[in-house]
Amino acid sequence: MTRICTFVGLIVPLLLVAGCAKSDTSPQASPPGNANAPASQASEPENSSIQPDASQEEVSELAQDIAIGLPGPAWENLTGIDDQQHSLKDLSAANAVAVVFTCNHCPVAEAYEDRLVQLAKDYKDKGVELVAINVNNLEADKLPAMKERAAAKGFDFQYLYDPSQEIGRAYSATVTPHVFLLDKDRKVVYMGAIDDNQDTAAVTKHHLRDAIDAVLAGQTPATATTQQFGCSIQYD
Amino acid sequence: MIDRWRQIARWLLLGAAAVSWLCAGCTHGGAEEDAGSPAASHRADLKLAVVDRDKYDAVIESHRGQVVLVDFWATWCMPCVQQFSHTVEVAMRFGSQGLVVVSVSCDEPTNPLPVVEFLRKKQAAGITNFISQFGGSPRSMEEFDISSGALPHYKLYDRAGRQRYTFELDSKAKDQFTLQDVDAAIERLLAE
């Protein structure tokens, strides 16, 4: 314990600023709801996500549907914050497409918004398209809220809404943010986290940028999958 | 002799430094050590300790003969916050039948105050509360085998210490798990 606390104490000065920032995003303001009725979850008891020792099975199950080297599922006619319909096939000129499942309500997704804006800016001239997709149907996440957030943050990339949630399920997206990088042939070459820490100051590995750089250099990303991390996507 | 005193003085200095680090790092952590300090007396009922995988495994192991429910959560996770009352409630409801409840927060161990405040508000002193050493990072998910990377995530261990159920988001499932499903699994394992 002392060792851990000493360690903690040592890094406190470094992370103080980050810590303060984070306490702002902790949902003290969001009142705990009814314990027995999580709004986002279906109430029927029949449920395939309850699996004895589920973790291993789930990994293999997901691997069949979405995997490195397989084509990235194509979306069609999803409404964007510009009220236009967008499809993956519209981006045929792009050298790579980074698909990021994100949303408004999640503090982790929010923590990554500036990074996405910067990433889109940095790679715009290199033929990389960043496409953010929200599949959550919470009021705070729906199209009007998406437009507001995009305007406030200056999103200079597509931000699409799929209320059917089908594209999220097709990608087996579990959290916001959860990223999938498609190469020139629209095959999945990287999936997982944007980087290794929601706290910008603590990031040591820029997974998505590294993967994009590899694709642009005609190489295979050295790291193809990382552990995604964030708020559960609220599948209806 | 003088050298020896010097050595002792050095250790005392080191000790003082360590204590100040402790204060800086863990004042709000409610780490075991601070329960006795006057400043912490108002929250002496609640303990929050930093946990890594080894310590976590030892905790599970120490509850052989009991069923253990672990709730992985975070203050930034909306459904976690909504469902936490249930976690506290099952501890009371099934405690006498042999259920032990553990919570592992995936918030930053460097900033545990929001976690402590939340746990106190939820009157969670009756359960064993931890905060992941790896905080809100992918590393926490890896350490604790949360492959979806999504919270809340529950693990349920039987009386022999074997992990028997996991409850987490499944993007392929038609319906997501409910707290009734968690309760049913707890009752099943308690009855074994």
Sheet of most strands of chain B: 6 strands, mixed
> How many distinct beta strands of chain B?
7
The named CATH superfamily of the largest domain in chain B: Glutaredoxin
Fraction of residues in β-strands of chain B: 15-25%
Query: From N to C, what is the helix and strand string of chain A?
Result: HEHEEEHHEHEHEEEHE
Distance between the termini of chain A: 42 Å
CATH class of the largest domain in chain B: Alpha Beta
Query: What would you call the shape of chain A?
Result: globular
CATH superfamily of one domain in chain A: Glutaredoxin
Number of strands of chain A: 10
Q: Note the total helix count of chain B.
A: 6
Shape of chain B: globular
Biggest sheet, spatial arrangement of strands of chain B:
1-4-3-2-6-7
* Overall helicity of chain A: 25-40%
The average pLDDT score of chain B comes to 83
Approximately how much beta-strand content do the residues of chain A carry? 15-25%
Oligomer: heterodimer
Query: What is the CATH topology descriptor of one domain in chain A?
Result: Glutaredoxin
What this model shows, in words?
The complex is a heterodimer of chains A (236) and B (192). By secondary structure, chain A is α+β, with helices and mostly antiparallel strands. Chain A has a domain at 79-236: Glutaredoxin (3-Layer(aba) Sandwich). Helices cover 33% and strands 17% of the residues of chain A. Chain A has helices at 2-25, 54-65, 107-111, 113-123, 143-153, 166-170, 207-216; strands at 51-52, 78-80, 85-86, 96-101, 128-134, 158-161, 175-176, 178-182, 188-192, 230-232. Chain B folds into 2 domains: 1-44; 45-191, Glutaredoxin (3-Layer(aba) Sandwich). Chain B is of the alpha/beta class. Chain B is 42% helix and 18% strand. A 6-stranded mixed β-sheet of chain B has the order 1-4-3-2-6-7. In chain B, helix 3 (78-94) packs parallel to helix 6. Chain B contains 6 helices and 7 strands. In chain B, 51% of the residues are buried. Chains A and B meet through helix 1, strand 1, helix 2 and strand 10 of A and helix 1, helix 3, helix 4, helix 5 and strand 5 of B.
